[in-house]
């Protein structure tokens, strides 16, 4: 079976993890501190904090920014549900914003429209732009909108380590930027995540919230109710080795993406419309309505190729559908639903062979031609 995504773990990774295991220093330690520095270097950021997952990164950010009951947060309607779940979990209200069919992302214009039309009782406090599949959001536009309206920006860059907008890395524009190192992402620590923080007092707050509310001011002090959202030292050791190889991996992903685009562009499917800055964590095509997407996935599986749907139209998920009915939706074209129903994700990962990509393209064409 050709997998949809597969982590590339070599001897070097195994040795690094083994060394930490043998050291007995398993929870947050030196490897985590080093990983934070190296991530900061890679991203061109001041402060990076490693945490236990991308969801933990988002949750900590909202708590640290004081977003809660009575507040509302603008989120894309097309994403992985974790982005929206954390807003619910802090007691704030998610406002679902439709996405652009070429990038699968929210746009500054779309966000502005929703803000102008908002008549709920909650106060809009922030925006969570998601760099969907590694495609950079127009962050310069989002940041000037946020500045104009006095809103926090929490970037969900879970899929977007290495993505860039105007020469600056995704995750370094907002008040905070959140990353995931789940094995489905391009760099993995098993589970894991990181937060880029732009402001020192916020960094301190997130450190405390990450670690039981502890502040080391001469002695241990419990200064607030915190979580345990720490990354382990052996996860960080794994991440450090992966980060050393990461730039090469992004290039491999570009080559695979170019092959797909080049060999599928004559048939009637929608491909992403972006030429630079994308980290290609995921490659999603959109099939025209006359094809049965779920059937195409099954037929590809019969040919030993694993594919999948891309992300979810949040408004159509049970919990959100039942809780908010249509009230939070300020929809125009319902692009998110179209992407959710007709999007298909093809295998892309470092280590995927050219012969395999040829087989994938040939198989997809065969199925579609029928
Ligand atoms: C993967 C992902 C998350 C969640 O990250 P975890 O590390 O699995 O908690 C959040 N948002 C987006 C857009 C993601 O793709």
Describe this structure in words.
The chain has twelve helices and 15 strands. The strands form five sheets. The chain has a seven-stranded mixed beta sheet with strand order 1-10-9-6-5-2-4, sandwiched between helices. A hairpin with a 2-residue loop joins strand 7 and strand 8. By secondary structure, it is of the alpha/beta class. The protein has helices at residues 11-23, 30-43, 54-64, 82-89, 108-117, 139-149, 200-210, 233-264, 293-302, 318-324, 335-342, 354-369; strands at residues 47-51, 71-76, 78-79, 93-97, 123-127, 152-156, 164-165, 168-169, 176-180, 193-197, 214-217, 219-222, 283-286, 312-313, 343-346. It binds pyridoxal-5'-phosphate (PLP). Pyridoxal-5'-phosphate is lined by residues 53-55, 79-80, 82-83, 130, 156, 158-159, 180, 182, 193.
């Amino acid at each position: 079976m050709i997998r949809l995504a597969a982590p590339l773990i070599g001897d070097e990774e195994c040795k690094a993890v083994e060394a930490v295991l043998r050291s007995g220093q398993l929870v947050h330690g030196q490897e985590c501190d080093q990983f934070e520095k190296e991530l900061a270097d890679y991203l061109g950021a001041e402060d990076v904090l490693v945490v236990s997952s991308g969801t933990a990164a988002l949750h900590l950010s909202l708590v640290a920014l004081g977003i809660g009951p009575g507040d509302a947060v603008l989120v894309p309607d097309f994403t992985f549900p974790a982005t929206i779940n954390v807003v619910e979990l802090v007691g704030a209200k998610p406002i679902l914003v439709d996405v652009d069919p070429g990038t699968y992302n929210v746009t500054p214009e779309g966000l502005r429209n929703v803000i102008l039309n908002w008549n709920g009782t909650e106060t809009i406090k922030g925006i969570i732009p998601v760099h969907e599949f590694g495609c950079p959001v127009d962050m310069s536009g989002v940041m000037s909108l946020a500045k104009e309206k006095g809103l926090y920006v929490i970037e969900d860059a879970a899929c977007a380590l290495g993505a860039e907008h105007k020469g600056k890395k995704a995750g370094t524009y907002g008040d905070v930027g959140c990353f995931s190192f789940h094995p489905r992402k391009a760099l993995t620590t098993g589970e894991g995540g990181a937060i880029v923080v732009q402001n020192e007092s916020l960094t301190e707050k997130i450190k405390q919230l990450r670690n039981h509310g502890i502040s080391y001011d001469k002695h241990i002090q419990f200064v607030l109710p915190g979580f345990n959202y720490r990354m382990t030292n052996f996860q960080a050791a794994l991440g450090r080795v992966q980060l050393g190889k990461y730039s090469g991996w992004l290039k491999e992903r570009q080559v695979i993406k170019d092959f797909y685009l080049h060999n599928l562009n004559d048939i009637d499917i929608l491909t992403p419309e972006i030429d630079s800055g994308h980290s290609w964590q995921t490659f999603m095509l959109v099939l025209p309505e006359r094809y049965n997407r779920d059937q195409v996935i099954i037929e590809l599986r019969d040919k030993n190729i694993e594919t999948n749907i891309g992300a979810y139209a949040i408004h159509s998920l049970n919990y959100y559908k039942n809780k908010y009915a249509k009230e939070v939706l300020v929809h125009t074209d319902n692009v998110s639903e179209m992407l959710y129903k007709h999007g298909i994700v093809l295998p892309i990962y470092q280590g995927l062979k050219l012969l395999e990509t040829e087989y994938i393209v040939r198989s997809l064409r065969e199925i579609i031609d029928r």
